[in-house]
Write a structure and sequence with these properties.
heterodimer; A: ABC transporter involved in vitamin B12 uptake, BtuC; 78% helix; B: mainly alpha; ABC transporter involved in vitamin B12 uptake, BtuC
Chain lengths: 334, 343
Amino acid sequence: MKVKQARGWSVTLAFAVLLFLLVLVSLNTGKMSLRLGEIMEVFLGAASERNETIVYQFRMPRIVLAALVGFGMGGAGVVLQTLLRNDMASPGTLGISAGAGLFVMLVIAGFQITALPSRYLLPVLAFVGGITSAVLIFLLAYRHHAEVSPTGLILTGVAVGTGYGALTLMITLKLDDNQMEFAQRWNAGSLWGDDWNYIGIMLPLVAGIWLYLYSRYRILDLFALGQLLAKGLGVRIRYQFVSLALAAVALSSVSVAFGGSFFFVGLIAPHIARRLCGGNHAWLLPASSLAGALLVLAADTLVRSSIAIVGIPTGIVITLISAPYFLYLLARIK
Amino acid sequence: MTQPQHSAGRSQGGRLFPLYMTAGALMLLAAAAASVSFGAADMSLATAWGAVFGFNPDISEHQVIRALRLPRTLAGIVVGASLAVCGAVMQGTTRNPLADSGLMGISSGAACGIAVSLALVPGGPYLTQMMFSCIGAALATSLTYLFASAGGRGMTPQRLVLAGLSISMLFGALTSAIAIKYRIGKEMIHWTSGSTASISWIELAVAMPLFALGIGTALAISRSVTLLSMGDDVASGLGLQARRIRLIATLAVLALTGLAVVIVGPIGFVGLIIPHLARFLVGADYRYIIPMSAIYGAGFLVLADLFGRLYNRPHETPLGFIFAVIGVPCFLYIARKIRRETQ
């Protein structure tokens, strides 16, 4: 046990260091190249105005957004997997992202996206959409006196996600050209909210919900043992399950609202973390969140650095990287 | 799924088969007639009849019917029959009630093939596109089957769906990447949203031989598919070469899916719903299910296309949307039924 804890601690630290390095690399990547020294100057406040604009107005918001989206997705994914005791659970496979996406699309169709009130409306409605599909999926997969089977739940999630996708398509067709382009980019996972105004809304939400989840890591550990055992150990199952699930849905909805739909991040990041640092949520939750942030930021940096794939939405790159990994997981399931 | 094989039900299905076929054919005929005469501008049935059998180039309505409505209706028939027969053959040979060329990722593989052909051979002939489409379909199918059957307990329906889902996301991402990279997004829209609107006679003419071949093959092996659907043990006990039949069936599925995607783009759920409807009506014998699927699939797609044109006129509602609305509840119902049976 002690060995595992030491390992979880070191994995989390390693992820954090990697993330820091990746942020530095990412700050250097882009159409105009800056040297490391120039970036240091910017942070020390001794750089030219041009360099400051590049770093603070263009690169930093995007990097922070990418990291936040991945962070939220990775955290939500690990909580959902533990609560449902299901390796395949994630905001994407359960259709929660699709539900949040539908409501985001409604906001785009109904309001001016740049107007201030809709900025605050966006995460709220995304959450409503995410919750709607979570409840719908639960009702459809739930059967009296029988445990919900893992694949059954995912199958339901996939089907509900498809239905939501079709409705989203329907709304997309009613949009004008400007909104349509935005909707398409959003759908492909384009990290659209790279603006300090959006990050100002997103950062406190993600941080708050995440800290709430982290404060319950012991309860998550007990849930991982199975509901029966957790109950025996004195956990108020129903209350804890519902509040933790709500928080996880909220976390993923906020990420979806500002980042776009990243189907696989919430699925892959927990698996990487679990494999490296075991099942102790004190380290698993931060490690998984950091892994998600790394994944999204790495894909985004790749998109911005390579001429070959420049202009391709980040989500597409993530799908191309992580779909094979998902297939590998699928092949390994007994 | 273990197919119910009580002989009484089957012979009854067999007795009613001609009746159902006649009803289906009449429905298809009525749907086709409606599809030719209704649309952005309504025309009388007599005008439609005249355009088909006594074509007069001076009448503009005749022109519209000849150039737009007739190929569109024919495309609906071809695609509907192809997809439904694909679904039936796949459900039988893989003994998997959730098999469907859209859900298995085959359609998105075909669409990706088209994107590659548009990027590499821009402006190439339809035959090239169709070839690439079939190659893409073949690649996606083999990948889906490979990952679904790898690992411990072999290919379960659920696992096939999940493998199909990720394969179709993978090919979907590849398609969008290619579309953005080579700036063929506009050309690809036709193949990603699923529409019969811009069909030309040439496309239909190229697709026809493949269509005939695919449907013919499916009908020819229908007896063997029935045996395969009872399990490999039964099939080989009765002297069937399971592997050879599976190969032939897969080739037919690839050809039919490839041509369907070239004509309208990836459409899911048709191949899932129609064979289940047919099985409900005529029992578990694929000698009846396959022709029933062809007729009802064609009628269903023509009707859905007509609905898409009439609902919310003059805008068109995409086929993909209509099928998702009908298909998702059916999918959920079927998935739930399997779980009940396996427990």
